[in-house]
Predict the 3D structure of the following.
Amino acid sequence: MDTSEKTIENLLSQMTLKEKIGQLNQAGSTMTCTLPGFEADIDGWVTQMLEGRLSQEEFGRRIAMCEENLREDEIASGSLGNFVNLYDDEKVAAVQKIACEESRMHIPLFIGVDVMRGYRTVFPTPLALSCSWDLQAVRESTAVAKREAYVSGVNWTFGPMLDIARDARWGRIVESPGEDPYLASEIGKVQVETFQEEEADGCRLMATAKHFLAYGAASGGQDYNTVEISRHTLYDVYLPPFQAAIDAGAGAVMSAFHDLEGTPCTMSRWLLTDLLRKQMGFDGFVVSDAEAVKQCVVHGTAADERDAAKKCLLAGGDMDMSSLDYVRYLEELVESGEVSEKDIDRAAGRVLKKKLEFGLFDRGYQYDPEKIQKTVLCSEHRRISLEVGKKSAVLLKNNGVLPIGKEAKKILIIGELADDKDAHMGPWSFTGVKEAQVTILQGMKDCAPEETEIIYARGFGVNDDRSGFEEALSLAREADFVIAVAGETAFMSGEAASRADLHLVGAQEEFLEKLSETGVPAAVVLINGRPLAIGSLQENDGIGAILEAWHLGTEMGHAVAQILYGDYNPSGRLSVTFANEGGQEPMYYNHPNTGKPGGSFKFTSKYQDVPIRPLYPFGYGLSYTGFEYSDLEVENPVLKKDQTLKVKVVVKNIGERSGEETVQLYIRDITASLVRPVKELKRFAKIRLEAGEMGRVEFSLPCSEMGFHDSDGTFVVEPGKFMVYVGGSSEQTLDAEYELV
Ligand code: GLC
């Protein structure tokens, strides 16, 4: 179907005002309960479940006693044109069938779901995936997510989330592509392209760049909190991944919950029209975040929900997710003249254009349970989840205990998390299949070499229960190797999961201290969503290794086991800084120097009670081998703005086994009209080298990428001296000077 303006005008001309407003309305199903004496407290149950006070099984049992209202009448009448977060294939088909066959205009629904890390086959969290630095892994995992979601009837994903995250107290750091704008932009570009590129069978999802803008800068790392940042930081740090997504053709942008410069993003005309459309060139539609339209009243910038509906629509917010304020008030706002029908047509036209572009009219209503069954969780998808999982884990410490030697015949696995399927899946995996989840305990058993005995003891959990300590410690004393699985449960990171204290919760550190005193070779595997304050583990010689395994999804158990047994040489590199303490956040590598950078002299910028350097820096990660850098060469150390910097470096694998290195290139603008970061990532490349092998890596960096935005958003490249740094992390680099003239 063509997406010309003519077609859209023609469609609009046949629609009533109600039907046009219906296209601006998105909502999900509602749950009611008619069982006598049984009160459906969905919000309460969700809160309890996400806070670990109600098991997912009990939550499911209670939900099963409720009726799910799919808003059939609203769809049939045309007053609901878009659905949100319906995970059941049959129900998705049912609502789409109503829209396509029963509504007067037969306009298909956008079925929007958070396809953030797979669909039925779950992949690593976005933060974990960004630690792979592997754009092919990003492409493959995104393609699987697209296929599984599409075949299940989904046609719109609320992803990628492109919020730069510099503060580990913010729970949604787990959903972010990390702290660096360049890495995040590269990942976001690949994800938008992959979600949206049409496959032979029409398979494609419309992507959403979210949350616009600077949601990750929430004050104090407290979710939904106000954001106070300068314009040039907004342009240089938070905006680039969204520009990359828009340049890649993202069909939608989701405005963020918070207020920015005193105006809620949801109703900010400067943000949603002047910046997003006029400056950045976005031509899709803007959807609010969940109930964010009505929250403008709570922000105190709308007198009531009618006022909120008016202000949000006129600011450039085209679609209202779940407030129902557009469908309640826009018709009367048009009748009163406060909103024109032209405003409605503009917004509805944007939505219809995307429905046409993404083939919704061509596809109409389809439901093929057999095809769904054959597609989701197929062995190929699970294989890809395993491979991507292995690439996303980061080896943080290894004094030689890993990989586990063949001589270790009795391996003890300790920790509740080791067998907690929900924890392995982690946040934002609501569409995942728990039964398919492979735990670390299961993975270690499946991958154990011949005659190796795997024993399990609960020992400790993410709580203060010490009752399992003694049994676990006595078993540890008889083991050849101990793996202790520590970290966070599934919902200790994610939305509404900010934490002031980044230490391991409960008695975890206490147990690990006692474990280290047994003298048995031990490795800690972390299951967690955010960087944690694990300095005590790093400093403790009795903890021989630390593997940051994040929440790797369906095949996590096998991925971790293959790393621990040495079948896979870990290659992940941190995309976020690990601070020493939560009080040190936000902590990130690409910071300005200040006039008194932290040092031994008293009067310099630092905390008195924690080290100046991060626990683990951006770009850091260990391997079972080692890499040595030499012969950094800048081909053209003096160059003009229209030229390209050419840099070469030699990398050698100095260890006993092959491995993959991520070569990182940073620059520093030494003197500029505004303070510049001490380092900025501008290129990276992965290189696989056999033991003893040397490789040469070459980078080209146009001078046009060496600039920055001044406070009114103008991008400038200024002449002067620069440094270029190349190495295996933001701290281990060779360097050279060059000059722009
Ligand atoms: C949530 C999140 C957003 C998500 C939306 C729909 O509140 O902020 O990222 O896409 O609701 O689930």
Notes: The chain has 25 helices and 28 strands. The mean pLDDT is 97. The first strand starts at residue 25 and ends at 27.
